[in-house]
Amino acid sequence: MTLKLDKVSRGPHLSTLVASSITREIAQGRLRPGDQLPTEQALATTFGVSRNVVREAIARLRSEGRVWSQQGRGAFVADSANATVLTIDYDALEKGDAFRHLFELRGILEVEAAGLAAGRRTPEDIEGMRRTLSIMTDVPYGSLQWLRTDLEFHRAVARATGNAYMVQFLGFVSERVRESILASGNRHRSDDIALATLAEHEAILAAIEAGDVPRAQEAMRSHLAGAAQRVDPHAGGRPEPRLGRNGAR
Questions:
Q1: Is residue 129 part of a domain?
Q2: Is the same domain home to 108 and 231?
Q3: pLDDT tens, position by position, 81-106
Q4: What span, in angstroms and rounded, lies between the C-alpha atoms of 190 and 177?
Q5: Is residue 73 part of a domain?
């Protein structure tokens, strides 16, 4: 068994990059169901990372149903036919229209979520959204904390729908987008962009708080289209606003 594993570039998501590299080996058949992965130490040496990073990567692959572990023996490639967990690989987002398609999916989900949130929000939901916007106002645009808080705002909108599945799906897709932005390093810092992004979030919040379903949906659609133009290292070109593509939530 000859694997094509290389050292990964330094960045905030080393475990994601390691997991993606191993996933690629599985997808291309160099690692087959039942094969044992190299030891943690061997993988750490190959990728040029710590064993903790490798453990995080293996834990992620295990949660995605790609590998299974046996104490004292190591990790093994799972039977792909038994995989039941939705996954979106970072490597796949680097190719073709995959990243744009992810934006489209995000738009479909988030526009509907904004409408549901406008009809179902509670005072606690509104307070949660206000709290995240307050934090975003105080941290540097494009920083890791900004992206985390941005994601939390959209999770708050999802929670306001009262639909647990919406929260799960949006959280999953949003996290994949965030990881791709971090890995790409495409985080332009600009006061004008920061103000525009905050204004879009505030418009979403105002519409949801007012209980205006159509306005909440349109505010979310407008934000997603604007975000795609600001942060979209893969799709290229000018997005169609009605498709709801998003790059920065």
A1: yes
A2: yes
A3: 455 555 655 555 555 566 677 778 88
A4: 20
A5: yes
Please give the C-alpha separations between residue 24 and each of 4, 52, 176, 185, in angstroms, as whole numbers: 9, 21, 17, 22
Bridge partners, residue 103, by sequence: none
* Closest C-alpha to 228, from 155, 177, 163, 175: 177
* pLDDT tens digits along 162-200: 998 898 888 877 777 766 666 555 555 567 788 888 999
- The count of other CB atoms within 10 Å of the CB of residue 124 is 10
For residue 76, the cross-strand partners are: 36, 68
Note the pLDDT tens digit of each residue in 22-36: 988 888 888 999 999
Q: Is 129 found in the same domain as 31? A: no
3-state secondary structure the chain: CCCCCCCCCCCCCHHHHHHHHHHHHHHCCCCCCCCECCCHHHHHHHHCCCHHHHHHHHHHHHHCCCEEEECCCEEEECCHHHCCCCCCCHHHHCCCCHHHHHHHHHHHHHHHHHHHHHHHCCHHHHHHHHHHHHHHHHCCCCCHHHHHHHHHHHHHHHHHCCCHHHHHHHHHHHHHHHHHHHHHCCCCCCHHHHHHHHHHHHHHHHHHHHCCHHHHHHHHHHHHHHHHHHCCCCCCCCCCHHHCCCCCC
What is the 3-state secondary structure of 103-145?
HHHHHHHHHHHHHHHHHHCCHHHHHHHHHHHHHHHHCCCCCHH
Residues 192 and 134 in one domain: yes
Please report where in the chains the tokens 């023996």 appear, as a residue.
73
Would you say residue 249 lies in a domain? no
Which residue among 38, 54, 82 closes a domain?
82
